[in-house]
C-alpha cells in the first residue's frame, strides 16, 4: 500500500479523535451536566449528544473508511459490505434513540419540537441516512441489482454518504452552540463569559471537526482505495464463485487460506495507474 | 461534454440558490433587523452575515466550480487561474470586512470576542483560506514552482479548498443559530416560538446547505473536469508556448481564434477514459 505509514498515522489519529470525542461527550454530561437517565429531564436530554457523537459521528466515520483498511482487502467484498451496513445500522439506531430522548425531554418541558435550524437539518440528515442505508442494502448488498445499476449508483451513494457525514458534523456544531447558550444562563456564567464548560465543549466541537476532516481525507484518496476485484477470467481460473461485482471470495478466513493473492497487489497496482490520472478530481 | 444538460441544470440551480441566499440575507437584515450602517450598533453587525454569505459562501462556491464551466475550456489555464484566484481574493476581502464589522460591534457593546465555537472555527477558516490563497498563488499561479511540486500539492489544494468551503457553511449555520437565539428574545417572540424571522432564517440556512451540496457535487465529478492540456509534442507542433502545466494558450480570445481545437475534445476524451476508472473514488 502506497503511503502505508501515513495511512496508519491518520487512522490512529481518526480513532483517537473519535474516541476522545466520545469521552468528552461523556465528561460533559456526567461532570458538567446532570448525568444520564431516562426521566424526561435534563439527564434524558443528555443521551442526545452522547448517542449522536458515539453513533452518528464516530461509528459513521469508521463505517466510511472501513473499506480502506488494507488488512481487510483479503476479506470478501460481501463481508466488508455487511460490516459497512452493520456499522451504519448501529449508527442509525443510536441516532433514532437520541431523537427520542430529545423529543421526550421537549415534551416533558413543554418546549416545542422542530423549531430550530439544528432540528430541521438534523432530522433531514437522519431521514436521508436511513434512505441511504435502505437503498445501499437493496442495491449493493442484496444480489438482485444488475452491475450497470450498481456502477451508476455507486458515485451517488459515495457522494451522499460523505455529504450526510459532513452535514451531521455541521448539525452537531449547531447543537453545541444551542445547548451552550441555553444551558449557561446564570449571570457571570454565560457562554460569553467562557466558563470551563464552554471551553470544554468548544474543544469537543473542534475535535469532531478535525475527526471529520481526517475521515474525509482518508475516504477520498484514490491510492488508499480497496482494490477492484480481478476480472472474470482470473476468477474462473481460480474456481471462485463470482458475485455481481466480481468478487471471488466468500469470507475472510477462506481468502487468507486461498492462493488468490493476486487480489491484493497486482489488481491494486493496475487500478492505481488508472486512478492517478483522475487524482485531481478526487474531492 | 458528457451530461451537458445536467451540468447546466445544476449550474443554474447553484446560481439561483447562491443568489437567493444573498437576497435572503439582505431581506433578513433590512426587513427583520436594523438595516446596514457602520455605527458600532446592530446595523454594523448586520454586515457580518451579508458579506460572509455574499463572499465566503456564494463567491467562494463559484470560484470552486469556475474551472468546470465548459465555455472556459478554450481559455488559457493561466487566465482561469487568475479568475479563480481573483474570486477567492474578493471572497477573502469581504470576509475580513465582515470580521471587522462584528469585532467593532462587540467592542462597542462590551461583548467579548472569540468565546463561541462559531468564532473559533470561523476565524480558523478565514486564516486557512488566506494561507490557501497565498500558497495557491505561489505554487500554481506564479511560474516558479516545478511541475512535480504542483502535482504533489494539487490534491491537497483541492481537498483543503473543499474542506474550508464546507467548514464555512457549517460556521454560517452556527452563526444563524446564535443570532436567532440572541436576537429573538422578547416573550412570545423567541426562537422556540417560530416567528416569521426564525422560519425565514432557517430557510436561508437550508438554501446555503443545498448550495454547498450542489457545488460539491459539481466540483467532484471527474467527467466535468476541465480537460488536461495537450502534451508537449502537440503543443510544439502548433507553435504554442508551454507554461509549467503545458498550456499552449495565453488568453481566451487567442484561443478562440486559433486552430488548437484539439484542446477540448480529443484531450478530454482521453482523460475521461482514465477518469472513469477512478470514478468510485471521486468523493
TrEMBL record, chains A, B:
The entry's keywords: Cell membrane, Electron transport, Heme, Iron, Membrane, Metal-binding, Oxidoreductase, Translocase, Transmembrane, Transmembrane helix, Transport
Reactions catalysed: monodehydro-L-ascorbate radical(out) + L-ascorbate(in) = monodehydro-L-ascorbate radical(in) + L-ascorbate(out); Cu(2+)(out) + L-ascorbate(in) = Cu(+)(out) + monodehydro-L-ascorbate radical(in) + H(+); Fe(3+)(out) + L-ascorbate(in) = monodehydro-L-ascorbate radical(in) + Fe(2+)(out) + H(+)
Gene Ontology molecular function terms on file: metal ion binding; transmembrane ascorbate ferrireductase activity
Annotated spans, Disordered: 228-264
Keyword Iron: yes
GO CC annotations on file: apical plasma membrane; lysosomal membrane
Naturally occurring in which organism (per UniProt): Podarcis lilfordi
Subunit structure: Homodimer.
Protein name: Plasma membrane ascorbate-dependent reductase CYBRD1
Main location: membrane
Localization terms from the record: Apical cell membrane
EC number: 7.2.1.3
Sequence ranges assigned to domain Cytochrome b561 in this UniProt record: 13-220
Biased composition (Basic and acidic residues): 254-264
Transmembrane stretches, start-end: 49-70, 82-103, 123-144, 156-177, 197-219
Amino acid at each position: 500500500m502506497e503511503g502505508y505509514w501515513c495511512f496508519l498515522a491518520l487512522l490512529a489519529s481518526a480513532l483517537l479523535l473519535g474516541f476522545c470525542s466520545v469521552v468528552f461527550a461523556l465528561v460533559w454530561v456526567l461532570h458538567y451536566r446532570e448525568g444520564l437517565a431516562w426521566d424526561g429531564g435534563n439527564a434524558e436530554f443528555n443521551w442526545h449528544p452522547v448517542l449522536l457523537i458515539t453513533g452518528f459521528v464516530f461509528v459513521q466515520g469508521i463505517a466510511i473508511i472501513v473499506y480502506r483498511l488494507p488488512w481487510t482487502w483479503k476479506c470478501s467484498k460481501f463481508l466488508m459490505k455487511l460490516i459497512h451496513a452493520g456499522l451504519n445500522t448501529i449508527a442509525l439506531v443510536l441516532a433514532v434513540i437520541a431523537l427520542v430522548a430529545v423529543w421526550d425531554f421537549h415534551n416533558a418541558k413543554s418546549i416545542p419540537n422542530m423549531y430550530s435550524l439544528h432540528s430541521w437539518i438534523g432530522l433531514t440528515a437522519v431521514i436521508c441516512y436511513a434512505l441511504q442505508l435502505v437503498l445501499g442494502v437493496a442495491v449493493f448488498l442484496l444480489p438482485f441489482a444488475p452491475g450497470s445499476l450498481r456502477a451508476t449508483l455507486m458515485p451517488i451513494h459515495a457522494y451522499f454518504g460523505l455529504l450526510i457525514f459532513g452535514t451531521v458534523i455541521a448539525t452537531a456544531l449547531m447543537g453545541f452552540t444551542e445547548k451552550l447558550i441555553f444551558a449557561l444562563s446564570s449571570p457571570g456564567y454565560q457562554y460569553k463569559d467562557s466558563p470551563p464548560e464552554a471551553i470544554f465543549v468548544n474543544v469537543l466541537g473542534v475535535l469532531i471537526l478535525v475527526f471529520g476532516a481526517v475521515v474525509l481525507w482518508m475516504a477520498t484518496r484514490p491510492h488508499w482505495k480497496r482494490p477492484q476485484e480481478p476480472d472474470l477470467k482470473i476468477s474462473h481460473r481460480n474456481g471462485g464463485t463470482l458475485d455481481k461485482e466480481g468478487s471471488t471470495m466468500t469470507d475472510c478466513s477462506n481468502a487468507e487460506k486461498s492462493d488468490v493473492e493476486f487480489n491484493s497487489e497486482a489488481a491494486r497496482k493496475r487500478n492505481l495507474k488508472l486512478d492517478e490520472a483522475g487524482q485531481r478530481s478526487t474531492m
